[in-house]
Every structure is written in C-alpha cells, then in structure tokens.
Amino acid sequence: MTELSPASSAPVSAAAGAPARGSLRELVQLGLPLVLTSLTTTLMGIVDAAFIGRLGAAELGGAAFANIWSWTVFSLFLGSANAVQTFVSQAQGAGDERRCGSWVWQGLWSIAPPTALAALAAFFATPVLLPAVLRLVGSAPELAQPAVDYLQPRAIGMIALGVVFVWNSFFRGVGLTKIPLYAGLIANLTNAAGAYALVFGHFGAPRLGVAGAAIATSASEFLYAGILFAVAARPSLRARFDTRPHA
Fold it and tell me: How far apart are CA 222 and CA 85, in angstroms?
C-alpha cells in the first residue's frame, strides 16, 4: 500500500519495513501462518488421541472411527466456509474494504444454521446410527460405546468450528493471517489442559474418559470462535471492514 508524499507527490511506503508486493518475504509472512493455523486444527485431534490412547485400544479405535465420521458429515459445511475468502479478497482488491464485513456475515448466515441442524441431528441420532454403522462394516462391538461417547460432544463442537472456518476465511482474505494462528494456539492450549483434566479426572474435574476429550475439544472450538468474534469487533477492524452484524 502506498501514499503520496505532500512534498513531492511521489509514492512512499505506507508501512516502514513492509515487504515488497509479490516478494518472497511477503509470501512467507502471509503463507506461513496459514500452514501453522491448519496444523492447529489437526493438533486438537492429535492431543485427543494421545490422551484417549492411554485409556485403551477400544477407546482409541472408537474415537478414531467417530472422528472420521464427524469430518465426513461436516466437511461439506466446513469446506463451503472457505468460499468467503474469495469474496473478501476480491472486495479488498477492488479497494472496497467496507464490503469485506458483509461477506463474512453472509457466510455465517449461510453456513451456521445448517451446520447447527446437522450437529443436533448427529447428537440425537448417534446412539442408534453409529453402532449400526459399526456392525455394518464389521468393526469390533467394543468400539461402539467409545465412538458414541466421543461423537456426541464433538457434533456440538462442529457448530463452533463452522464459525471458526468462516472467520478464518475472512482474516485470510484481508491478509491478517496471524490472527487465526494466535487464536488457534490459545484454543489448543485450552484443549490440552481441558482434555487432561476431563479424561483422567485431574484438577478436581470429573473423570469422563473418551467423552472428556471430546467435550474439551468442543469447548475449545467455541473459545476459538469467541476470540475471532472479539478481534473482529475491535473498533479499528470494525471501522475498516465494517464487521458489525449484517442481516
């Protein structure tokens, strides 16, 4: 971004020390946080597996099966959230940054309601459908209860994860790629502490086993979404991108 010097009308850098447009340094500054942010989402599942694995093979296998099914069902909604980045970046590139906020809210209104309905359906249908699916594919019967225990809380967390994906698309679209990374790191630390407490019953928390890991992950995803909402509501970003709620 450049601005005109009042003395010479020559373009000068708007931000001292900023990388040149299209340079390798700019690519790294924008791209590296994107890669790390994607890893933070995967890391939550890895932490869950690490703690659940200490409970036994059946618990780990059931949770892994449930995790696969949750991503299979919700990938349609989570993938659609990435489209927000396209419209946000186009608006910014056209010099109309005030339109960026309206695009993210259109994404939220489009994705959050169907994600919530799918999550509620999965929550109530899981105790019946998931054991039936396990029997159909010939899995060991002892996987059924851990799978149900894990998938029910995780289904609710998918509501927040859909919101996270929309806001992450917004921040990527406007080039603020470090914000989702920092929010994701906070969510991961929260998840690790919560899973440790709830899986094994530490710090005075109830011992919930497999369900404890899923509850901690879902709660961390709601925290993740809340952090992104709070950052987007800051006066500077609200004034620049018009991130106030849009109908």
Answer: 21
